[in-house]
User: Which sequence fits this backbone?
């Protein structure tokens, strides 16, 4: 299993039956591959779908149905379409149970940076700022570090903020970390790592949960 | 009721250099390609475009950007069109990035005669710079002002001859909102039917918002 698959699989365990969930482009989208068969979740896509299904099997697809990445997608029975104002009433208005998105940096106060590296990468925030502002729960799904083990989990983000103090949980290939008022609380570590290694690759102090789980 | 049917070339004649355009679509899904083609053929330039995104390479607004017709882009996302970011970083095109939910509400406010909207999105980020922060019942919000345009270009799956519009699937996105917020609204339709050809309950954009209709809309690859 690739690092991304490990992360996506662990994020899927956070989902509860009946949740309305928005998954960001890239790694977060993979979470839908690992949803337990015992629960039903409803995928919201900010371009205007509630009840989004998987990408079409085979070569034929309906050009009128795309996901937020502009790629062909299907819908589940009971799905509905709406305009962008209704979509963001759902998102900003607190009707989304969980949003999962990637980040370039996250900090111990729950702030994240994901939409711009000034002068270099300028994708724009799209719906991310509204999603993290309005969702009941915000989960960051990302690799624990950047290239050459450069930490992405920091005391304070240095890139422009996508939102301040909105992240609830960080899930990486190494750890599950909760953002609490006291700081970052290490709840779980992967089977092939140690608390010391996770701390070493994190540029903020980790509090260790009393019931720390090992192995996911 | 006045006949709203015109050709794509006549539609392009309604758009002048330097105008502000709102263009429907989400990553080109729901963008009126036939009108984009007519504007490119006309050699339009110096446009300010307000839209969700910069389209993709080879489709939608991405085609207008590629021919240098866009001087200024106001959008939420430009990641799928690398040229946009390059032009922005070189200073050749001005890009203003706005959170998607804020952008659509600014357009809605512009079309609905409102003086703006109050949103929590962007508080504590660069988005709040220069904006008024208003407290309502102990909660802080940014005041975001209305947006309007000279012309809106929208895409209909089915339009009736009075301008009533039905949108298939996700092609709806920004289209019904921008249809309310521009002085002149031009809809390109895949199919145009006689009045009564769309069930009144299925109409999403009332024809009162639509000034002109162009037939023959289809996807580009």
Assistant:
């Amino acid at each position: 299993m690739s690092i991304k698959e490990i992360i996506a699989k662990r994020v899927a365990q956070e989902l509860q039956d009946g949740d309305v969930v928005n998954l960001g482009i890239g790694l977060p989208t993979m979470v839908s591959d690992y949803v337990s068969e015992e629960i039903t979740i409803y995928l919201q896509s900010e371009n205007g779908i509630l009840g989004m299904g998987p990408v079409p099997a085979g070569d034929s697809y309906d050009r009128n149905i795309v996901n937020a990445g502009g790629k062909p997608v299907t819908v589940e029975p009971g799905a509905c379409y709406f305009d962008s104002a209704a979509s963001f009433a759902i998102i900003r208005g607190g009707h989304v149970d969980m949003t999962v998105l990637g980040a370039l940096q996250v900090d111990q106060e729950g702030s994240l940076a994901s939409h711009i590296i000034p002068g270099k990468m300028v994708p724009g925030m799209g719906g991310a700022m509204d999603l993290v502002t309005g969702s009941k729960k915000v989960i960051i799904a990302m690799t624990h570090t950047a290239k050459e083990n450069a930490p992405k989990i920091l005391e304070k983000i240095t890139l422009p903020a996508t939102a301040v103090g909105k992240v609830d949980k960080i899930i990486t290939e190494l750890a599950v970390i909760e953002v609490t008022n006291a700081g970052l609380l290490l709840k779980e570590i992967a089977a092939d790592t140690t608390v010391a290694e996770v701390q070493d690759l994190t540029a903020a102090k980790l509090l260790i949960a009393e019931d720390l789980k090992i192995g996911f | 009721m006045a006949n709203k049917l015109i050709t794509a070339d006549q539609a392009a004649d309604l758009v002048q250099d330097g105008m502000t355009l709102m263009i429907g679509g989400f990553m080109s899904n729901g963008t009126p390609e036939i009108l984009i083609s007519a504007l490119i053929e006309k050699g339009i330039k110096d446009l300010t475009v307000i839209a969700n995104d910069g389209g993709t390479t080879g489709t939608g607004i991405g085609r207008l950007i590629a021919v240098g017709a866009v001087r200024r882009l106001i959008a939420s996302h430009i990641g799928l069109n690398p040229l946009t970011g390059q032009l922005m970083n070189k200073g050749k095109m001005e890009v203003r990035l706005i959170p998607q939910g804020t952008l659509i509400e600014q357009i809605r406010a512009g079309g609905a005669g409102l003086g703006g909207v109050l949103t929590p999105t962007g508080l504590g980020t660069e988005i709040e710079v220069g904006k008024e922060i208003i407290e309502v019942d102990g909660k802080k919000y940014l005041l975001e002002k209305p947006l309007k345009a000279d012309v809106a270009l929208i895409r209909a799956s089915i339009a009736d001859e009075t301008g009533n519009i039905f949108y298939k699937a996700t092609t709806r996105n920004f289209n019904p909102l921008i249809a309310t917020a521009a002085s002149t609204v031009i809809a390109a339709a895949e199919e145009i039917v006689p009045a009564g050809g769309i069930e009144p309950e299925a109409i999403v954009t009332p024809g009162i918002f639509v000034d002109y209709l162009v037939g023959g809309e289809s996807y580009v690859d």
Notes: The radius of gyration of chain B is 17 Å.
